Amino acid sequence: MGIFDLFKKQDDKPTVQSCVLAADAKGVAMAMDAVPDPAFSGGAMGQCCGIDPTEGKVYAPADGSVTQLHSSFHALSMTTTAGVNLLIHIGVDTYDMNGDGFSAKVREGDKVKKGQLLLTMDLDKIKAAGHSAVVITAVTNSGEVSSVELVASGSVEPGQDLLKVTA
Question: Which one of the listed residues 70, 74, 89, 131 is annotated catalytic?
Fold first, then answer.
């Protein structure tokens, strides 16, 4: 703790700390510009990457708290203990499925540990509905950090380093 920390107001927003986020699914990592959803690939939701999943499970990429869970279980938001705000979104236009094929293993407000199962999805149902199942991980407070860098390529396993966030 530095001397200036003693004078910091109690209501100051915590600052984001540098960290490495883990792969939240098993599959093939893809850079932001390859994500098949223009809202994400264009950066409207913050810096992101995708994983084309080979199994229907999504895991916590870091320790933190679930801040929002979409009613159809195709997306959730969380804040990591490092202050990184994340949106984890399964697929493209999968909200059209109204939750069919998706299941949540957590609730809003839950504290989660890196590697904890968050959501499951039926990859066959998503494909049959004509949607991509790409798991998109977006740093929604990208403007508060220096950089977000994809550090994985090719096949990834849950827990493997995926995104490096530099404060």
Answer: 89
DSSP at 15: P
pTM score, whole prediction: 0.91
Question: Residue 56 corresponds to which tokens in the numbers above?
Answer: 């229907």
Contacts of 129 (CB under 8 A, 6+ apart): 94, 96, 97, 100, 101
Establish whether 70 is a catalytic residue.
no
Whole-angstrom Cα distance, residue 108 to residue 80?
14
The sheet that has 147-150: what strands, in order across it?
19-22, 161-166, 147-150
| Burial state string for 72-102 with b = 16 or more CB within 10 A and e = fewer than 16 | bbbbbbbbbebbbbbbbbbbbebbebeeebb
User: What residues contact 126, with CB distance under 8 A and at least 6 apart?
Assistant: 90, 91, 94, 97, 101, 132, 133
Backbone region of residue 9 per phi and psi (left: phi > 0; alpha: psi in -120 to 50; beta: other values): beta
The 3-state DSSP class for residue 56 equals coil
Residue 51: closest CA among 109, 138, 122, 124: 138
Q: Supply 58's token pair.
A: 């999504």
Per-residue pLDDT of 55-104, as tens digits, reads 999 999 999 999 999 999 999 999 999 999 999 999 999 999 999 999 99
